[in-house]
Write a structure and sequence with these properties.
The complex is a heterodimer of chains A (about 325) and B (about 425). Chain A is of the alpha/beta class and about 325 residues long. In chain B, the strands form 5 sheets. Chain B has a 5-stranded antiparallel sheet with strand order 5-16-17-18-19. Chain B has a 5-stranded parallel sheet with strand order 9-10-13-14-15. Chain B has a 4-stranded mixed sheet with strand order 3-2-1-4, with no helix packed on it. Chain B is an alpha/beta fold. In chain B, strand 17 and strand 18 form a beta hairpin. The chains are: A alpha/beta (about 325), B alpha/beta (about 425). At the A-B interface, helix 4 and helix 7 of A face helix 5 of B. Chain B: GO terms for molecular function: allantoinase activity; dihydroorotase activity; metal ion binding.
């Protein structure tokens, strides 16, 4: 495996291998000295065209714990705003000698373009491209859920696990990557949200859907609910009438948390809009995996870097 | 003036004859011979092709194309006339600009360059450009279009349709409801949902066409719909024609052959407006071209410089080349498919577009006394498309695809603009 652009690039076996490596990395992260020499002498560039401190820091820590040299490149411009083009930026990084480029970009397909353009020789890791994919987020979500469900998770998938992804499916790269990866791992995936934000093409790939969170809770016997962040720009674009109405129908509040029962996990890719798609009662409940998701992000990204750069067992 | 005979050429009706040309005019169709004798055995001779939708980019965007480079590409594609779209810089919205474009075309001298005038000032969609002045200019503009942008204001569209009646003009509408297509990147459907690219729904085209055929009926005016791309649009045009509404419609070669699946490559060469649609749409468009619902093939030849295509999809420009491949795609769809014949090919490539534009010396049948605008093609060859040809740009959507047919000669007003598939000048 050279690049990680889309979770579609991963077979079930390759995905499980990454999750298993993540497990080993998480053990490293529990040590006093959280560092491995694996990627010594390698250069990882975090190329961020979009602000995302959380994802950038997670990748940065992951690379540093593997002893790679890390360069953070915040590229504000794009060919739209008459700044430096993606091609020029990529060729600059190539000249510097990057072994891996972690790219976050506002344009869907930017990571695909970088990986297939011939502009860079190193590995390309998609850290979120527009409304397309966010594969490391899906891997860390799968990892977190797998660890929560199985005491000894090694080698296992998510067979038969029922997960609802709730919210703005249409514009969510997290939802797209999770839909494909969770299904690949054997989970049943249900999509829930207002009809304006549920594209029929994605519904047809899911195991079911609902326009009502209450109906979904009553129908699908969920093992986990994954709440998506409501982006500010959707609120003014007429996808739903108001924040209040959204919270009332699709928000995960204390009442719905009770209906879900004590065996259903609550997930959120962050950052949360508390009071909108998720209430404090749900976010901070004992079933919430939100903080584990953040912690596991580092382990999973270490595993991805390891698999792509160290000539690991999947070469 | 030269004098020559195309010997043993096959005509659109399948008959074989010699075509004699003297002083720019067809002298005979028969078995005589005059002047230089040029073997045309096995070659099909048709009225020179007429493109109703060409972006020549001059003035203003000469890094993409010029009237000269576009004329070259057109001649190599078998065209003897092209219609230069109005979205230049400055916009072709005054008599001065359209006359300049016509002059550049005359100077190039390879094809007839017929300017299209903008409907609204600066393509701004707010007030009518001086349509009458352009019609009465030396360029004799008959087609008006804000192509690239839709005349979306219904009142303005109604006024434009009514106004051009006084000089038998036609409004060529780029049918795209702007609010339904904000930020749109590709056809809205399964592929766009998977790729996370903002969708351009079919209804955004169909709703404008439905409105405009009703406005054309109400005003009794001539309406032309640019680059039809959806099965639903075909249904609306079919209905409108049955009602006797004076509407004509075009389809581009790329919408007859390519689909939205190509967007999976994220290669912006496949980014075009209206977008590539689905197999079902392609099928409906092909049927409509055969049965007469769609009147013409028009290229929407849209050259762009490398930097406008070598970037992220959402940052890339819309549009693709088409002049040198149009006849091949039309042959594939009409002839090689077995669906139709050379007479229909000639209608959609020459006769009908010339009639819509009221061009007098173009799109005429190859008959004695007519101006010798002739395309001679070899339908039995194939070629794998590569690069942008004579265009200054290289946004070639058919790259790597094998297409049938080769343009051997193009004769413009009795003179070879292309001979043996090479530019004469």
């Amino acid at each position: 495996m050279k690049h990680l652009v889309s979770v579609s690039d991963l077979s079930r076996e390759a995905a499980i291998a990454i999750l298993d490596t993540s497990l080993e990395m998480s053990e490293v992260n529990d040590r006093d000295i959280k560092k491995l020499p694996t990627l010594r002498g390698k250069t990882v560039v975090n190329l961020f065209f979009e602000d995302s401190t959380r994802t950038r820091i997670s990748f940065e820590v992951a690379a540093k714990r593997l002893s790679a040299d890390v360069i953070n490149f915040a590229a504000k411009g794009s060919s739209v705003s008459k700044g430096e083009s993606l091609k020029d930026t990529a060729q600059t990084l190539e000249a510097i000698g990057a072994d891996a480029v972690v790219i976050r970009h506002h344009a869907s397909g930017a990571a695909h373009m970088l990986a297939n353009s011939g502009w860079v020789k190193g590995s390309v890791i998609n850290a979120g491209d527009g409304t397309h994919e966010h594969p490391t987020q899906a891997l860390l979500d799968a990892f977190t859920l797998r660890s929560a469900i199985h005491a000894d998770a090694r080698g296992k998938g998510l067979d038969g696990v029922a997960v609802a992804i709730v919210g703005d499916i249409a514009h969510s790269r997290v939802a797209r990557s999770n839909l494909v990866l969770l299904k690949k791992l054997g989970a049943k995936v249900y999509l829930v949200g207002p009809p304006t934000l549920l594209p029929s093409a994605l519904i047809s790939q899911a195991d079911g859907y609902s326009y009502s969170l209450d109906d979904a809770i009553a129908t699908f016997k969920l093992d986990a609910v994954m709440m998506l962040r409501v982006q500010l720009e959707r609120m003014t674009a007429g996808f739903f009438p108001s924040e209040r109405e959204y919270a009332r129908i699709w928000g995960l509040n204390a009442d719905r948390l009770a209906l879900l029962g004590s065996n259903t996990f609550v997930m959120h890719p962050g950052p949360m809009n508390r009071g909108l798609e998720i209430d404090a009662a749900a976010a901070d409940s004992k079933n919430s995996l939100v903080l584990k998701q953040v912690a596991n992000g580092v382990s999973v990204r270490m595993a991805v870097l390891y698999h792509l750069l160290s000539g690991g067992e999947n070469e | 003036m030269s004098e020559f005979t195309l010997v043993n050429a096959t005509l659109a009706d399948g008959s074989v004859a010699n075509i004699g040309v003297t002083d720019g005019v067809i002298k005979f169709i028969g078995d005589q011979k005059i002047g230089e004798q040029i073997d045309a055995k096995g070659l099909v001779a048709l009225p020179g092709f007429v493109d109703l939708h060409t972006h020549l980019r001059e003035p203003g965007f000469e890094q993409s194309e010029t009237v000269l480079s576009g004329s070259r590409a057109a001649a190599l594609g078998g065209f003897t006339a092209v219609h230069a779209m109005a979205n230049t810089m400055p916009v072709a919205d005054t008599a001065g600009v359209v006359e300049q474009i016509k002059s550049l075309g005359d100077e190039a001298g390879l094809v007839q360059v017929q300017p299209i005038g903008a409907v609204t000032v600066g393509l701004g969609g707010e007030r009518l450009a001086e349509l009458g002045a352009m019609a009465n200019s030396r360029a004799k503009v008959t087609i008006f279009s804000d192509d690239g942008k839709c005349v979306s204001d219904p009142l303005l569209m109604r006024r434009a349709l009514a106004y051009v009646k006084s000089f038998d003009g036609v409004i060529a509408q780029h049918a795209q409801e702007p609010r339904l297509t904000e930020n749109s990147q590709m056809h809205e459907g399964n592929v766009s949902a998977e790729l996370g690219l903002a969708g351009w729904p079919s209804v955004a085209e169909e709703s404008i066409i439905a409105r405009d055929v009703l406005l054309a009926e109400a005003t009794g005016s001539r309406l032309h719909i640019c680059h039809l791309s959806t099965a639903g649009s075909v249904e609306i045009i079919r209905w409108a024609k049955q009602r006797g509404i004076k509407v004509t419609a075009e389809v581009t070669p790329h919408h007859l052959l390519l689909t939205d699946e190509l967007a999976r490559t994220y290669n912006p060469v496949y980014k075009v407006n209206p977008p590539l649609r689905t197999d079902a749409d392609v099928k409906a468009l092909r049927e409509a071209l055969v049965d007469g619902t769609i009147d013409i093939v028009a290229t929407d030849h849209a050259p762009h410089p490398v930097e406008s295509k070598e970037c992220e999809w959402s940052a890339a420009a819309f549009g693709m080349l088409g002049l040198e491949t149009a006849a091949s795609v039309a042959q594939l769809v009409l002839i090689d498919s077995g669906a139709s014949n050379w007479q229909r090919f000639s209608e959609v490539m020459s006769v009908n577009p010339a009639a819509i534009s009221r061009l007098e010396s173009q799109g005429q049948k190859l008959e004695v006394g007519n101006v010798a605008n002739i395309a001679v093609i070899n339908p039995r060859t194939t070629r794998v498309i590569s690069g942008g040809g004579a265009s200054k740009s290289s946004n070639q959507p058919f790259e790597g695809i094998e297409l049938p047919g080769t343009v051997i000669h193009t004769i413009y007003r009795g003179t070879f603009s292309v001979r043996d598939s090479k530019l004469a000048k």
